[in-house]
């Protein structure tokens, strides 16, 4: 704390919450353009980035977006119903399920891409390339801290019977 005041800490938290809300609203808009929910959009984007040539497992997708595999499995059902994802058994391990984008999903994402690029550029326009890289590193460092803090909250809830 600076000068025994938590004002800078509070300013940081307020800024992070406000920026996070803005990013969430943007994600919701992109999702709406595809006719899906915000979290379904997040899953779709994760699959697009990670599927490679084989597809991406539900558990790897869940790890990427920091959600449970059960949660992702439930959302994948809706994305399959919307014909945006396919689900297939892995050739090397028949117990593993792999997700892939459908051709319709690829087409719709490609149509959305120009707006995504414009908005994403605006989100970070004041940062230099080096500052952006630093921010990515800092977020990578902070995510496990957030998970620990959430885990602590879950323990406190259990201890209090809540």
Condensed summary:
This protein is 71% helix and 7% strand. With 162 residues, the chain is mainly alpha-helical. The radius of gyration is 19 Å and the shape is globular.
How many strands?
A: 3
What structural category arises from helix and sheet content? mainly alpha
Mean pLDDT: 93
Biggest sheet record:
3 strands, antiparallel
Termini gap: 31 Å
Estimate the helix proportion, in percent.
Answer: over 70%
Q: Which H/E pattern describes the elements? A: HHEHHEEHH
What does the model show?
A hairpin with a 7-residue loop joins strand 2 (85-89) and strand 3 (97-101). A three-stranded antiparallel β-sheet has the order 1-3-2. The model has no long low-confidence stretch (mean pLDDT 93). It is globular and about 60 Å long. The chain has one domain: Arc Repressor Mutant, subunit A (Orthogonal Bundle). The two termini are 31 Å apart. Helix content is 71%, strand content 7%. The protein is mainly α.
Which features would summarize this protein structure in a list?
single chain; 162 residues; mainly alpha; Arc Repressor Mutant, subunit A; three-stranded antiparallel beta sheet; 6 helices; 3 strands; 7% strand; globular
Strand-helix topology:
Layout: H1 7-34, H2 38-50, E1 56-57, H3 58-65, H4 69-81, E2 85-89, E3 97-101, H5 103-123, H6 129-160
């Amino acid at each position: 704390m600076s000068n025994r005041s938590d004002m800078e800490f509070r300013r940081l938290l307020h800024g992070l919450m406000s920026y996070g809300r803005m990013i969430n609203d943007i994600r919701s808009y992109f999702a709406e353009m595809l006719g899906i929910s915000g979290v379904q959009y997040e899953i779709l984007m994760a699959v697009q980035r990670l599927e490679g040539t084989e597809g991406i497992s539900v558990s790897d997708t869940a790890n990427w977006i920091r959600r449970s595999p059960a949660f992702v499995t439930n959302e994948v059902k809706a994305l399959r119903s919307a014909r945006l994802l396919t689900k297939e058994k892995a050739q090397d391990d028949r117990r593993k399920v792999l997700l892939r984008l459908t051709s319709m999903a690829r087409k719709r994402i490609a149509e959305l891409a120009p707006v995504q690029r414009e908005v994403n550029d605006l989100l970070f326009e004041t940062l230099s390339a080096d500052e952006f890289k630093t921010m990515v590193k800092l977020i990578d460092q902070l995510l496990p801290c957030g998970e620990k803090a959430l885990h602590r909250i879950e323990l406190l809830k259990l201890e209090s019977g809540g």
